[in-house]
Design brief:
The protein is globular and about 50 Å long. It has one domain. The protein contains 9 helices and no strands. The longest helix has 26 residues. Helices cover 81% and strands 0% of the residues. The relative contact order is 0.26. By secondary structure, it is mainly alpha-helical.
Length: 192
């Protein structure tokens, strides 16, 4: 039970922490509805698996230049998402939920280029997994993903309730500005 609770605590902390994925989940929920936000919240299930495997088997950090390249790609993509979202939100009515698949694509691409995911799994996740044995590894992963995805889904449902209120466009604009700001920060702090 202890590995599950450890994973759940880290997953919940990651799920509710402000960051690019949470901003994207909120933006998708406010602009397209709860289903789009919930679908975007599932991105870690797709993006993290190979990184967890790589971190587990390699037991060494990524070369600095590779992490910087991922950071540059992630920063540029977040700037793109933020600007595109701000352009759509000016004077446009909320989009209908017919394009929820695009929410998952955007979240997966954004998460794949998020250097924080790699840093977490190489510096925190992998050492924890190596300390656990057998079923403890699976319990940790179950707790982590249940709570990181579940907490983001709850936030998506709550954010979608703002969709048709005066707070909806403001929430989407704040989320788009957050994506833009994190992207600029990632680009500004590059070290090759």
């Amino acid at each position: 039970m202890e590995p599950f609770l450890l994973g759940a605590a880290l997953g919940l902390a990651a799920g509710i922490s402000p960051g690019p994925l949470l901003a994207l989940v909120v933006r998708e929920a406010v602009s397209k509805g709860a289903a789009a936000g919930m679908l975007a919240a599932t991105a870690p299930l797709i993006t993290d698996s190979w990184v967890v495997f790589l971190a587990w088997t390699a037991s060494a950090a990524l070369p600095g230049w590779l992490l910087s390249a991922v950071q540059a790609a992630g920063g540029a993509y977040l700037v793109y998402l933020g600007i595109a979202g701000l352009r759509l939100s000016t004077g446009a009515a909320p989009a209908e939920s017919g394009k929820t698949a695009s929410s998952l694509r955007a979240a997966v691409l954004m998460n794949l280029t998020n250097p924080h995911m790699y840093a977490f799994w190489f510096l925190v996740g992998s050492p924890l997994l190596h300390k656990l044995s057998g079923s403890g590894v699976w319990a940790f992963l179950a707790g982590f993903y249940t709570f990181i995805v579940g907490s983001k889904m709850v936030i998506a449902v709550l954010a979608s309730r703002l969709r048709h209120t005066p707070a909806g466009p403001a929430s989407a604009a704040i989320s788009n500005l957050a994506l833009l700001g994190v992207g600029v920060y990632l680009l500004a702090t590059l070290h090759f």
